[in-house]
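Posting this for the archive.
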Amino acid sequence: MDSSSSSTTRRMRSGGVALGGMGLLAAALVACGSSKEPDKRCADRVTLEKLNTKECRSGGRGSYYYGGSVTNNRVHGGSFDKSAVKTGGIGGGSSSSGG
């Protein structure tokens, strides 16, 4: 084997490593973005105030609120009913009905 063919071989190996790394990155991004679970946060069912997560544990005054967002420490655009909230992959967002 002469020096030019060993140089070509080395370049091809490093290219394969770079492509393999890109594949792993793409797979990780897709896995993160395709969750079947909607976002959830703890909130008061009456006031819709966002609460600390510990308030949703046994005996706390909160319930999990799925999807939506928080503005001025109040949840909106989601639902306390998890099945009413749709989930999406990358760029899919969430939507819901009810309140």
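Helices lie at 3-33. The first strand starts at residue 40 and ends at 43.
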